[in-house]
């Protein structure tokens, strides 16, 4: 079933123009003029070629919330965005806190076959923050879980967090923390600041994120374990990560596309499509996050793709669910906020959206340079073609994109996974 | 003007137009024939998804004096308390042909959601949304202050108003800060630091933690209702301490300017934010606020629904 594909005239992340031949699921040749009889040809003359994108933070909602998303629909949204790996968060129903659930999600990904779905295991049983989930069994399962997170909930108890950090050292796992001090954020609706004071919406202060990050980098240092901070949103959080890295602490951090672009001013509409956790912050935070992503203080971009059914967003702000779609627009937003602004080049995009997340998640077969012999996971993107985001045309089962109506630069021309074209633009 | 959602949507001219219209309507209300035919045949829905007897009956009285048909749709015993969504409720009211919906809701922004959505086409009047705004209350407060203290002036220039108490959770405070400053008054917020929002430094007001240092210079003092559950949420230690520092009592009353007035949006907690003798003193205009509320709400409904019709004209 394996095809021969010739990607012609594309620009590699390092800026060199090259043809690229794919055979038997691997990159067979990279050179300036390849001719291949009978090969399927993808015209990449206006495009950059990136290693298949790796998302370390995706909510696929299956099992339990199939009205919002399934592994299949999420996979379709993923390949439309250039991803070849999604990391399925554990807050499903039932929670992914046993080998049985992570194996189910993993197998659903395999049978869909568009990309690799690697489940993230819960840190604590039922995400309740009290007892460790079956971490060892999930690690040993066919899903080979290496990333553990109670995302949506902070692992707040410092003893539980310490034990989890220590326990996953056995297989070089990592704890991905949703940093949110629960007492300081009871009932919180949006960033605490000028806008919340005017809107009368309960504030989610930056300090509630920063206090947990500070505690956890110290814990990670103490037990010499790997810590990953999910969706960093504040300038203060950036400072703490920068300090921790300078001390040699094994911490990594992610930023979402929406936190690189949107601010809390959008809450003035009271439209819950802009309600997300952690919340949209200020312009100053956005600028600090961009700078930190450019200088490597923030290691990766992760989508926190969070589909929700219409009725949980077509309501009052305080009744609405937290979360936004992200997979289909992530690379375009990174293009807009980081590349077009001159903060990073495409080689750094490859690092932040493919190599680094694959390293953090220990996804061995992914996040590799586009060289002969490497597995053929490739995103072909035309960075100059503009498109208008339309929530009615998304591949996701849900429509809660905050970018609806916005014109973004950069469309995926094709996504190749294991040497097969799993998405081709202009046809969907 | 199509909706009244927030004071920030009103220009100074529009705000003054509401107050002036309310003055005219108040003169009608003082006459023998209280009722005007202006809104005959129009349907106004009071959608009260949160308890509020006084605001609801004030709007109801206002609508009835303009001859509108009024439907009361209150939380208790209605579908709202059975978990029906705001969207479904709005579409139901639309299907029934409501010309205007007056909404009271516990969620900040609920009125704006209703107005911005495609769920209904009628006018929306915000009768208090969560801890956001309560514009008709601010308009009646400004109306009351202007009657007592503006000395025939158009606006509130030169007046100093203190708003005292739980600013953090008060929609009355947010609307009044916007309106009173728009009309030229100087506003000082007086509260314990716990009951002021982070971000208050961006508001066009002065802030004081010391009621006694403010009381002598104010022309009007507006006391906010303090809810007992704020104590369990650690905003202040106990009722006695709150009253001592932030309550209006006889001693503070004595320090006020001779002409200064005492206001409260109601319902009062007598003995907590205001002592009985303060509430019942000659300075108190609290009942006038209630009376003026009807005139101001008539003016709002009139301007939203009757357009350029002259007051008193029949169809």
What this model shows, in words?
- The complex is a heterodimer of chains A (428) and B (315).
- Chain A has 428 residues and is α/β, with parallel strands linked by helices.
- Chain A has one domain: TIM Barrel (Alpha-Beta Barrel), CATH 3.20.20.
- In chain A, 28% of the residues lie in helices and 21% in strands.
- Chain A has helices spanning 71-80, 99-112, 135-140, 158-167, 194-199, 206-223, 235-246, 257-261, 283-295, 330-339, 346-361, and strands spanning 5-11, 17-23, 26-31, 40-43, 48-51, 53-58, 83-88, 116-119, 147-148, 174-177, 190-191, 203-204, 227-229, 251-255, 300-301, 378-388, 407-417, 420-424.
- Chain A has a 5-stranded parallel sheet with strand order 9-10-13-14-15. A 4-stranded mixed sheet of chain A has the order 3-2-1-4, with no helix packed on it.
- In chain A, strand 7 (83-88), helix 2 and strand 8 (116-119) form a beta-alpha-beta unit.
- In chain A, helix 4 (158-167) crosses helix 6.
- The model of chain A has no long low-confidence stretch (mean pLDDT 97).
- In chain B, helix 5 packs across helix 6.
- Chain B has 2 domains: 7-133 and 293-305, Aspartate/ornithine carbamoyltransferase (Rossmann fold, 3-Layer(aba) Sandwich); 135-290, Aspartate/ornithine carbamoyltransferase (Rossmann fold, 3-Layer(aba) Sandwich), CATH 3.40.50.
- Chain B has helices at 12-30, 53-65, 86-95, 110-116, 135-149, 171-182, 211-215, 229-232, 239-246, 250-255, 276-279, 286-305, and strands spanning 43-48, 69-74, 100-105, 123-129, 160-164, 186-190, 206-208, 220-223, 261-263.
- The radius of gyration of chain B is 19 Å and the shape is globular.
- Chain B is built from 12 helices and 9 strands.
- The longest helix of chain B has 20 residues, at 286-305.
- Chain B is α/β, with parallel strands linked by helices.
- Chain B has a 5-stranded parallel sheet. A 4-stranded parallel sheet of chain B has the order 2-1-3-4, sandwiched between helices.
- Classes of the chains: A alpha/beta (428), B alpha/beta (315).
- At the A-B interface, helix 5 of A face helix 4 of B.
């Amino acid at each position: 079933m394996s095809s021969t594909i010739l990607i012609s005239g594309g620009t590699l992340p390092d800026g060199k123009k090259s043809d690229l031949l794919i055979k038997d699921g691997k990159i067979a040749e990279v050179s300036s003029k390849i001719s291949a009889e009978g090969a399927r040809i993808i015209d990449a003359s206006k495009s950059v070629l990136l290693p298949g994108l790796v998302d370390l933070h995706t909510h696929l909602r299956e099992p339990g919330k199939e009205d919002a998303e399934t592994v299949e629909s999420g996979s379709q949204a993923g390949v439309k965005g250039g991803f070849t790996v999604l990391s399925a968060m554990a807050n499903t129903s039932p929670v992914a806190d046993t080998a049985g659930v992570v194996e189910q999600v993993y197998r659903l990904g395999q049978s869909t076959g568009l990309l690799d779905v690697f489940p993230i295991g819960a840190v604590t049983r039922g995400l309740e923050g009290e007892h460790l989930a079956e971490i060892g069994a999930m690690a040993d399962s066919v899903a080979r879980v290496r990333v553990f997170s109670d995302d949506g909930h902070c692992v707040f108890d410092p003893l539980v967090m310490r034990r989890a950090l220590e326990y996953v050292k056995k297989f070089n796992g990592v704890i991905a923390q949703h940093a949110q001090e629960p007492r300081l954020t009871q009932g919180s609706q949006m960033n605490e600041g000028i806008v919340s004071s005017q809107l009368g919406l309960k504030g989610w202060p930056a300090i509630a994120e920063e206090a947990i990050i500070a505690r956890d980098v110290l814990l990670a240092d103490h037990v010499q374990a790997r810590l990953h901070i999910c969706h960093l949103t504040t300038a203060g959080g950036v400072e703490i990560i920068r300090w921790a890295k300078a001390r040699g602490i094994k911490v990594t951090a992610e930023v979402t596309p929406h936190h690189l672009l949107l601010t809390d001013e959008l809450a003035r509409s009271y439209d819950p499509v802009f309600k997300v956790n952690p919340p949209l912050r200020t312009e100053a935070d956005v600028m600090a996050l961009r700078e930190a992503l450019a200088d490597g203080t923030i290691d990766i971009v992760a989508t926190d793709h969070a589909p929700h059914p219409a009725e949980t967003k077509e309501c009052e702000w305080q009744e609405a669910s937290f979360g936004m779609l992200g997979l289909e627009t992530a690379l375009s937003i990174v293009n807009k906020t980081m590349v077009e602004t001159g903060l990073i080049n495409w080689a750094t995009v490859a690092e932040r959206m493919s190599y680094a997340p694959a390293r953090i998640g220990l996804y061995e077969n992914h996040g590799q340079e586009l060289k002969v012999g490497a597995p053929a996971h490739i995103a072909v993107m035309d960075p100059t073609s503009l498109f208008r985001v339309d929530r009615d045309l998304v591949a996701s089962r849900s429509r809660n994109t905050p970018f609806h109506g916005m014109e973004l630069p950069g469309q995926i021309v094709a996504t190749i996974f294991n040497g097969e074209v799993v998405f081709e633009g202009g046809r969907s | 003007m199509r909706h009244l959602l927030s004071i920030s949507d009103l220009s100074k001219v529009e705000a003054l137009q509401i107050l002036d219209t309310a003055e005219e309507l108040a003169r009608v209300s003082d006459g023998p024939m209280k009722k005007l035919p202006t809104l005959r045949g129009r349907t106004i829905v009071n959608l009260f998804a949160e308890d509020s007897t006084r605001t609801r009956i004030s709007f109801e009285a206002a609508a009835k004096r303009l001859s509108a048909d009024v439907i009361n749709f209150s939380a208790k015993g209605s579908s709202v308390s059975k978990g029906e969504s705001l969207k479904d409720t709005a579409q139901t009211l639309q299907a029934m042909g409501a010309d205007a919906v007056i909404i009271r809701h516990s969620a900040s922004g609920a009125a704006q959601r209703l107005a911005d959505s495609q769920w209904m086409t009628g006018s929306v009047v915000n009768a208090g949304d969560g801890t956001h705004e309560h514009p008709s209350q601010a308009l009646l407060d400004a109306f009351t202050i202007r009657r007592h203290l503006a000395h025939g002036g158009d606006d509130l220039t030169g007046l100093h108003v203190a708003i005292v108490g739980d600013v953090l959770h008060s929609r009355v405070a947010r609307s009044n800060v916007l309106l009173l400053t728009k009309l030229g008054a100087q506003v000082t917020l007086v509260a314990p630091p716990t009951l002021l929002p982070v971000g208050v430094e961006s508001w066009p007001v002065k802030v004081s933690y010391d009621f006694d240092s403010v009381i002598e210079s104010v022309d009007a003092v507006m006391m906010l209702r303090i809810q007992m559950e704020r104590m369990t949420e650690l905003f202040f230690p106990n009722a006695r301490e709150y009253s001592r520092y932030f309550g209006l009592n006889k001693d503070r009353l004595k320090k006020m300017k001779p002409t200064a007035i005492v206001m409260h949006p109601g319902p009062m907690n007598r003995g907590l934010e205001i002592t009985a003798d303060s509430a019942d003193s000659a300075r108190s205009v609290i009942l006038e606020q209630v009376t003026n509320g009807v005139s101001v709400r008539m003016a709002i409904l009139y301007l939203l629904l009757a357009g350029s019709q002259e007051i008193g004209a029949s169809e």
